[in-house]
Amino acid sequence: MKTTKWPQRLPIWAVGYQTGAYLSLSLAADGSIMEPRKFFNFFLGVTLAFAPVNGAYDKERDALLKGTFPQDFIWSSATAAYQIEGAWNVSDKGPSIWDTLAHQGRVNNQDTGDVACDSYHKYPEDVALMKQMGLKYYRFSISWPRIFPTGEQQDGVNQDGVDYYNRLIDELIVNDIQPMVTLFHWDLPQVLQDRYGGFLNNHTNTTVIHDLFGDYARFLYQNYGDRVKYWITFNEPWITAWLGYGIGNFAPQHNEPAEGQYKAAHNIILSHAKAYHIYDDEFRAAQGGQVGITLNCDWGTPKTPADADAALRYVQFFLGWFAHPIYKNGDYPEVMKTTMARKAQEEGRTTSRLPEFTPEQKLSISGTGDFFGLNHYTTVEVTDACCTPIENPNYDTDKDVGTGHAPDWPRAASSWLYVVPWGIRNLLGFIKEEYGDPEIYVTENGRSDHDQDPAIMMDMERICYYMMYTNEVMKASNMDNVKVKAYTAWSLLDNFEWLSGYSERFGLHYVDFNDPTRTRYPKASSVFFKQLVRNNGYPEGSEFTKYVENMWYFCHNTTEAEVNGYTGGASQISSLFSLFLAIPMMIAYSLIA
Ligand code: BGC
User: Which family does it belong to (predicted)?
Assistant: First the structure.
């Protein structure tokens, strides 16, 4: 579909501009000029990817908002231990469930995180990259088995691992970068999975896994809390619960899709509450930091007005599953409880597959977030699918919805990632209304490219993604009064993208995984992001904002003339100029300068 309008629109002079622009872009990752055949493929690929389509742009909804974020707005970038550290078995580090899964050859291309970006050794370079971009915050995670090899403190502490994070944190502080630390980004110690079933451990009462997570949290607060003021207990428990213990494609690959995810989520929520209270009771007064959790959610937009309730149900089953207990009232959303109770009846069960919290547990869970961490990437269109009886129920069918994508939503390399910038504004508004106007930290947002040869260094689509999504975040902040305090780009570096291995690249910096020294190269998006941070948004009249204005329609896969009507040719020329020449050249120039 994207290609059909292209030849009709492109005047011959623009072809010249285009060729010139892409020639200026045709550098391989090592800076050499590409071979003609590679260049032709590259040229074709980029041309097809960027050919405009009609229809997606909504003049009111998608217009560029000029202005800046509040003065104290936090700009950050994020990584996670297993995805970047490597050094999987140095000193006494224990194996995690992701080491196990990768070593069983279950990742695309049999990739592993054994070396990854080698940040265990190269962290000073990573910090230097952040410094270069003007970032003042860095979100990273600590590997539990690097601290306690078995997951249990009583079995021993890996002092080298403790020292590693001390060095990293010190390096950040010296460079005036605040650490935001995630305690758990999916790399559970394998021993805890083997000994206790991981997060499936006896899910209804106080269980070992809550206490063990509490001990681990306490140890981190004790050792790093003098310098770390932002703690995130869990990253995306939805993924651990559903992909890890429900559908079972992610580690630890436990396949129990009717109930596994509900049990695991229950344990994670209780473990989170435990870690929160430990900070509150033992550390907050002396350390003065904040503790929250990071939840992921795709926005669900109704396909037709009749699907509005279904879309809400979709978001409640996704975000509300964790957010409702933690940020609202200690318990699961009503719609989840009633839906699951009805299903229990239909399935002839005496109890719901969704576990219940005791009154004491509800009290201890409610209000355990000093901020609301949000990871958001994409949006789905939701249709109502209520209420067909299902023979083998699972979390997906429990929601009684169908999901799809509008045909004009552009796609990233990851199969699930459709680019729908306005979705984040809707989601932020939903969180404000639903959870009592919390302070929201966007702890991840970003876009993937394929790993391809030649490398995508002029990553225009990522620039567009950041431009459009951050502008929507600014609309939420400045127009809708959502208390958004932070925006975090995923990711600082290309890294180990879980089951996709190194085949999908989310980085602001390119990492050469064939190079034993794992050299990092800035992509064009890192230059863009640096300017965004420096401008704290899109201030009226700045050079940066003018550049963004020139890019705006191109990024939305349309032209100014299509949106505002043909006004004598100038707008068409300006839009083509920015599309084919000005933008790539400006970026190339900034990279060299
Ligand atoms: C995760 C990251 C992951 C990213 C892109 C988030 O779900 O927290 O670890 O790399 O999405 O898939």
Answer: Belongs to the glycosyl hydrolase 1 family.
